[in-house]
Recover the amino acids of this structure.
């Protein structure tokens, strides 16, 4: 009886005061309500990430960026070029008011002999469909970089996510998670992103298409040699991303 009272008291305290929760969504779950978004944004702002950039991200994208910056002790470095286009080049680029694609570069500083160097660059490519496409199949995201300056940081630092907004709950969920790219070349990686997600609504008896589509690709790039933060800055434009459908 005493043990039961102790457990009950602990549960009451947890219910009353709560605990900060940062749990990344996994396939088939709804977890964005638990994201302490404003706390994560405050931390990222302290690491020099622009507020308008953070405001454009959905909660799961912010969570991944936050976890990366926290775990890697990373800071915002700059934006790299990012485009969205049709595979049929005659159709040109996809308008920004239909598909928002942003690509940010972070850096992990290391200090040696009184000087600061770049230990690692972290690339985060995020997309969000502002106007949902009628045809929802498989698209491609490619990240390219100057291999004379940078090299791929390895699959252990690669993650990619496809997110969708559930048609019933309106919460963001993770549709697919990737731990390695579909293709790796000298100075490039490619990953497929899937837009055919959806969810069961009405107590799981009726299927509905996703009411929001978004995703993120995260890779690391290592400098070829020591790069001083003070005298050997790298132009983020040596890295660029392309979303193709």
């Amino acid at each position: 009886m005493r043990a039961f009272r102790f457990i009950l008291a602990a549960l009451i305290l947890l219910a009353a005061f709560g605990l900060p929760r940062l749990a990344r969504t996994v396939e088939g779950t709804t977890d964005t309500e638990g994201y302490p978004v404003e706390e994560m944004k405050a931390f990222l702002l302290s690491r020099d990430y622009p507020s308008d950039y953070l405001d454009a991200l959905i909660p799961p994208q912010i969570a991944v960026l936050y976890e990366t910056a926290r775990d890697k002790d990373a800071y915002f470095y700059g934006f790299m070029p990012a485009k969205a286009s049709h595979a049929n080049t005659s159709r040109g680029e996809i308008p920004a008011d239909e598909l928002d694609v942003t690509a940010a570069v972070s850096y992990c500083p290391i200090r040696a002999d009184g000087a600061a160097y770049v230990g690692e660059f972290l690339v985060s490519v995020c997309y969000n469909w502002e106007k949902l496409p009628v045809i929802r199949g498989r698209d491609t995201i490619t990240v390219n970089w100057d291999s004379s300056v940078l090299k791929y940081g390895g699959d252990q630092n690669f993650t990619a996510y496809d997110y969708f907004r559930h048609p019933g709950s309106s919460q963001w969920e993770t549709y697919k998670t990737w731990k390695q790219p579909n293709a790796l070349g000298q100075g490039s990686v490619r990953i497929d992103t899937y837009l055919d997600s959806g969810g069961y609504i009405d107590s799981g008896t009726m299927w509905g298409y996703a009411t929001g589509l978004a995703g993120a690709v995260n890779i690391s790039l290592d400098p070829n040699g020591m790069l001083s933060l003070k005298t050997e800055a790298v132009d983020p434009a040596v890295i660029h991303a392309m979303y193709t459908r």
Remarks:
- Residues 2-17 form the longest helix (16 residues).
- Confidence is low (pLDDT under 50) at residues 1-33.
